[in-house]
Amino acid sequence: MGEQSRLCSVWLGSETGILKGVSMSRKQAFNFCNTSHLSRDQEVRALCWGDPGESELLVGSVDGTVKTFSIEKGAFIESRRCGDPAEGCFTGLAALSGSVLLTCGESGTLRVWKEDSSEPVTELDAGKNVCRMRQSPAHQHKVATGGKENGLKIWDLERPDKPVFTAKNLRDDWLDLRRPHWVKDMAFIPDSDKVVTCTGYHQVHVFDPSSPQRRPVLEAAYSEYPLTTLSLPAGGNTVVVGNTHGQIAMLDLRKGLVRGCLKGLAGGVRWLQCHPSQPVVASCGLDRFLRIHSLEDRKLLHKVYLKSRLNCLLLASRDLEDGGGATEGEGASQEVKEEEDEVWDTMEQVGEAEEKPKRKTTEEEGESQKKSKKKRKKGQD
Amino acid sequence: MDITEVPVSQDNRGKKKKNKKPKKKKSVAEEGDGGGGGGAEKKEEKMEKSEAASAFPPTFSVSEIKNKQRRHLMFMKLKQEKRKQKMQLRKKKKKEREALGDKAPPKEVPKTIENQRVYDETTVDPEDEEVAFDEGTDEFSAYFNGLTNPKVLITTSDRPRGRTVRFCEQLATVIPNAHVYYRRGLALKRIIPQCVARNFTYLMVINEDRKVPNGMVLCHLPDGPTAHFKVSSVRLRKEIKRRGKDPTEHSPEVILNNFTTRLGHSIGRLFAALFPQDPQFVGRQVATFHNQRDFIFFRFHRYIFKNEKKVGIQELGPRFTLKLRSLQKGTFDSKFGEYEWVLKRHEMDACRRKFQL
After folding, report:
1. Chain B residue with minimum CA distance to A264
2. How many angstroms separate the first and last alpha carbons of chain B?
3. Residue B121's CB: how many other CB atoms inside 10 A?
4. Which residue, of B48, B192, B292, B302, has the fewest CB within 10 Å?
């Protein structure tokens, strides 16, 4: 089990309670389950890395337990009770340094849990109907929350009484009616204070806490369906959003225009994540597929069928197609990668892998290009 | 018009001009003779050209002949030629097959679109545990575990016309425990909590356009999925030929054909949960939902076993065709609901051999 979990570069949580790990290099999916019998209250709602070294995963379920999964061992090591199911499911999970856990439920209670105690150290009330809580990657103690009729609030955990920044709702529209707002997901833009949010009323807002303006600095709209999730790619200025109809679009944050759409999803998008270094984005949703698109040419790179509806996903920071195991010698890795080449050639739609130019011979390139041309003709996904 | 005649006198002129373009030939011919003579020459030139062409490798196709009747006749000839060749080939093959007798190679199966269907990776494997668990605990589990009995509310879009009203009435006779209510312009989102309070398990809304039913929204009630279908080819009872008497109150059996993929399974279960779990075999009635190429055909029959091997069937009841447009998780909420599957025509219909259900 340990070797299987070490290979996986994408982790997903499903509605049936199974934690799935997918290894892109081998194109295989593995199921990791806590108990021998499955049940719906183990439904995974939140996933996050337990430590910066990415050797542990924190899995939050509907019944209020947070389980820790160790990648080395390939099994769940511990489980903690962090809240009642009556309060609503987890909308955010984060880990602070020193094995401190941060959880937020739908009823708005944001709690900080220390390792061994069953009572939270700090507790915040973030309002009702919180849809998401995210932690800032730059400042570990800053978190943002938002929900339905509950605007974006940025909290500093060291001063838990008042939010550092509360967003104001948009101006009343041309009929002087109050605009409804429903924050569904947010992200902290790196290298600045700004926060970008996506709403259930198909808008994308950018807030700047350092400016005196509490209303959004930038407003952009996409399509007509609620935007459920967003993610920021590595190179700045763009944001990738997904909506309930399965449309994924890349928006430019400078002007708010749509850069392009990623096609292929048939069901609502539940979670999107861009890879920290490679220009790829992984999406999972209600149609039970994991799809990986390339951001540059908007093509589908991989599509994996995982039999349950997927709720959340996590990408490992290392290369997606990495076979895992840093202890492999150069010779062994060469062999593995040549085998992978053959595996790639028989797979759909090989992307232009810039990192493997020396290993691909010209004839293989020609073959794969021909194959991809053929596949495009048939109009495959 | 006798096109087979080849006048000998004009031979030379025809042959000289066979390499020029037809337009030039025509103009020269017209200038040359004019009137009937010109017509005859044109005819001859065409004949010459075609004859010359049939002698040489065909550099022209039948479509280049400008004269419609002539072109039509040439095309008919071409088709007859092809058919003759095909018949000759078949006769030859048949002879060879008879000659070989037992050692003949097996007959080739013709390719159909169903044969060539692209294998769908979401096809459900009957032994798959995860899928079995998923289905065992989904929104229909209450029905399939025998805890609830179906109770269907049938309604239409606002102000339905005669055909739709009759269709709803006939549907109500086909589905046991179904009630038809007039819509009165009520909002579906407000009807749903009331239905749940009165223990309905399904809400079926038949949408009407231009006096003909064309859409159906099927919403499973406590918190179940909502499917939106396009309805076509509706035949009411009086339009069905050789039909039997009206259906009785017995619960019919249900046949679900060809729902193989995961999405197909969900839709199949959606249909199955419309009817009570224990069919009354005394009634000898059966409702069939047959899926072929993503179209679902609904038929309602009465059967009788004449002896062990022969069955007679009589079609009763309405017949219609459905095509799934979207499957939404949760009760009807087309604006803010999450969709489990949406038909995206240009993406999904691009390949003719790939089907979703």
Report:
1. B347
2. 57
3. 11
4. B292
Helix (H) or strand (E) holding B301: strand B295-305
Distance of CA A103 to the CA centre of its chain: 16
Higher pLDDT, A144 or A355: A144
Q: Are strands A90-96 and A75-81 parallel, antiparallel or unpaired?
A: unpaired
pLDDT above 80: residue A366:
no
Residue A170's nearest CA partner among A203, A125, A131 is A203
pLDDT profile of chain B (357 residues), mean per 10: 51 44 45 45 49 56 88 94 95 87 79 88 86 87 88 93 93 93 92 93 94 94 92 93 89 93 92 92 94 94 91 92 93 90 86 85
DSSP-H helix ranges across chain B: 11-16, 22-32, 36-55, 68-100, 129-136, 141-144, 162-174, 188-197, 262-272, 345-348
Query: B244-271: b or e for each residue (b if 16 or more CB lie within 10 Å)?
Result: beebeeebbbbebeebbbbbbbbbbbbb
Instruction: Say whether B88 sits in a helix, a strand or coil.
Output: helix
Is residue B252 within 8 Å of residue B113, measured between CB atoms? Answer: no
The dihedral built from the CA positions of residue A29, A33, A38 and A40, taken in this order, carries a sign that is negative
- Whether B341 sits inside 8 A of A264 (CB atoms) is no
Residues B356 and B261 sit within 8 Å (Cβ to Cβ): yes
Q: Given pLDDT bands bounded at 50, 70 and 90, which one contains residue A228?
A: very high
B99 touches chain A (CB under 8 A): no
- Tell me the backbone φ, ψ of residue A150, rounded to 5 degrees: -135, 105
Q: What are phi and psi of B312, to 5 degrees?
A: -110, 140
Distance CA B304, CA B315 (A): 12
Q: Does B342 touch chain A (CB under 8 A)?
A: yes
CA B44 to chain centre: 49
For B138, other C-beta atoms within 10 Å of its C-beta total 19
Q: Nearest CA to CA, how far is B357 from chain A (Å)?
A: 13
| Total count of residues recorded for chain B | 357
Query: pTM of the full predicted structure?
Result: 0.77
Which residues 283-302 in chain A show a CB within 8 A of chain B? Answer: 286-288
Nearest CA in chain B to A18: B130
Select from A226, A309, A378 the Cβ nearest to the Cβ of B351: A378
Give me the pLDDT at residue A276, please: 87
pLDDT at A338: 52
A243: CB partners within 8 A, 6+ apart: A202, A222, A223, A225, A226, A227, A228, A268, A269
b/e per residue B26-57 (b: at least 16 CB within 10 A): bebbeeeeeeeebeebbbbbbbbbbeeeeeee
Which residues in chain B are contacts of A308 at CB distance < 8 A?
A: 130, 134
* Among A194, A189, A197, A248, residue whose Cα is nearest residue A219: A197
With CB atoms and an 8 Å threshold, state whether B122 touches A288: yes
Token digits of residue B287: 């409702």
Taking the C-alpha atoms of residue B314 and residue B244, their distance in angstroms, rounded to an integer, is: 6
* Separation CA A273–CA A229 (nearest Å): 9
Distance in angstroms (rounded) separating the CA atoms of residues B71 and A305: 55
User: Which pLDDT score is estimated for A9?
Assistant: 87
ipTM of the complex: 0.77
Q: What digits encode the pLDDT tens for the residues A368-381?
A: 444 444 444 444 44
